[in-house]
Amino acid sequence: MDIDVTVLLCLVLGLIMYFLFQPRNPNSPPCVSSWIPWFGAAFQFGKAPLEFLEQARIKHGPVFTVYILGNRLTFVAETEDALELLRTKEADFDEAVMQNLFLIFKLIVRQLSPSNLHQFSETLWDEFHEHVDHLGKEGTEDLNELVRQVMFPTIMKTLFGKSFGPTNKSRTEEFERHFQNFDDEFEFGSQMPEFFLRKWSKSKTWLLTEFERIVTDIKKHKPSESDSKTLVQHVLDNFHGNGVANFLLLLFWASQVNAVSGAFWTLAFILSHPSIYKNIMEEIVSVYGKAGNKIEVFEDDLRKLPSIKQCILEALRLTSPGVIMRKAMKPIKNFVIPPGDLLLVSPYWMHRNPKYFPEPEIFKWSHDRWKEANLEKNAFLDGYFAFGGGKNRCPGRWFSIMETHMLVVILLYKYQFTLLDPVPKQVTSAGI
Ligand code: HEM
């Protein structure tokens, strides 16, 4: 064997031994080890994240660390620990980033607060109707695709303004294709060098160029006295420094991805439980009369349809997205978490804690699950993390509940649905 190759082999072996047996603080959480430097457990995690984490939780207990793509990720699996963690100041986002964006986030929270929602309801209704009208009177379609087709342009026009965004059908399709690529590898794209993700990186560059064009258009546009400003116009008036296109891309991503999935699951749960579907239709007909006519749905009407709101919250409980992330330096359960560790809590686990949600796997849409929550006053249930927690909780939560509520009413009223395929497995049965 060549001497250079021997030296290289020794180096690689040394590195592997270091990663496997490096000395660690006895008070750090147990670590899920892997012999691949830097990548760590990325492959096993990427294949089936929830199964991987469930196995790690069974083996290591409620707080454990996984090394992935150069990051130490510490998972916190118990509801009480997670609640404490999301409230504490010691677990926060990157301070430098947050200082720059603090005022912008405050502005978004203010703009999308419950008392301001009426501003959006007319545009939302107009846009939903325009796009639902395009769908025609009958047909067979993938439910997720149907929701996406309607929600995508509606959110764009509502948040950015009617005259902005992709200008024609082919541009819209191109936008959607790049956005889909961007979303598909978002988790990896935000952690890995872009060199490994050529398609993701190309689509991100395309989208950033498009957002830069939109920013220029919005800034050139002089709104008339009667025009009320859109959320994005408010953001642009207050955003100082570089990176505005990047910020808008992330804002648009945050507003789209979870909202489309939330609306899809709400409809899927309703349609796959005939008794729930029947009850919801009776409620809608009691407010709007016989289904099938054209209706106007405004914020106030939605209050008369509380069961749909319960279905939305329950669907989000069972299908909440991945994980909520913070950066840490805080002892949790007597463990010292090294500074810089990424701390993760998972709504998936929290929402299956029977102490907070009895019979957690069952879709309980009606009063027995949600009777404790004061939905009129916009209060959720303890242990409910669908929109995160603490001061970085999702500022779009009330807006997204309202838009989902509206879309579900409009679609259920216009169409009579029959499911042709089984719903992907999420729950076993409905509890009414
Ligand atoms: C069903 C729909 C939605 C769900 C389930 C959802 C969920 C979440 C979650 C879990 C977070 C992380 C919170 C945390 O770290 O504690 C978040 C953050 C965020 N969401 Fe949403 N979201 C939805 C819709 C929206 C919409 C429609 C918008 C905007 C119009 C939006 C804007 C944001 C923003 C800007 C953040 C970052 C907040 C911050 O870092 O301080 N979201 N969302």
TrEMBL record:
<feature type="transmembrane region" description="Helical">
    <location>
        <begin position="5"/>
        <end position="21"/>
    </location>
</feature>
<dbReference type="GO" id="GO:0006699">
    <property type="term" value="P:bile acid biosynthetic process"/>
</dbReference>
<comment type="similarity">
    <text>Belongs to the cytochrome P450 family.</text>
</comment>
<dbReference type="GO" id="GO:0008396">
    <property type="term" value="F:oxysterol 7-alpha-hydroxylase activity"/>
</dbReference>
<dbReference type="GO" id="GO:0042632">
    <property type="term" value="P:cholesterol homeostasis"/>
</dbReference>
<keyword id="KW-0408">Iron</keyword>
<keyword id="KW-1133">Transmembrane helix</keyword>
<keyword id="KW-0349">Heme</keyword>
<dbReference type="Pfam" id="PF00067">
    <property type="entry name" value="p450"/>
</dbReference>
<keyword id="KW-0443">Lipid metabolism</keyword>
<dbReference type="InterPro" id="IPR036396">
    <property type="entry name" value="Cyt_P450_sf"/>
</dbReference>
<dbReference type="GO" id="GO:0005506">
    <property type="term" value="F:iron ion binding"/>
</dbReference>
<keyword id="KW-0812">Transmembrane</keyword>
<keyword id="KW-0472">Membrane</keyword>
<protein>
    <recommendedName>
        <fullName>24-hydroxycholesterol 7-alpha-hydroxylase</fullName>
    </recommendedName>
</protein>
<keyword id="KW-0479">Metal-binding</keyword>
<dbReference type="GO" id="GO:0020037">
    <property type="term" value="F:heme binding"/>
</dbReference>
<dbReference type="InterPro" id="IPR050529">
    <property type="entry name" value="CYP450_sterol_14alpha_dmase"/>
</dbReference>
<dbReference type="InterPro" id="IPR001128">
    <property type="entry name" value="Cyt_P450"/>
</dbReference>
<feature type="binding site" description="axial binding residue">
    <location>
        <position position="394"/>
    </location>
    <ligand>
        <name>heme</name>
    </ligand>
</feature>
<keyword id="KW-0753">Steroid metabolism</keyword>
<dbReference type="InterPro" id="IPR002403">
    <property type="entry name" value="Cyt_P450_E_grp-IV"/>
</dbReference>
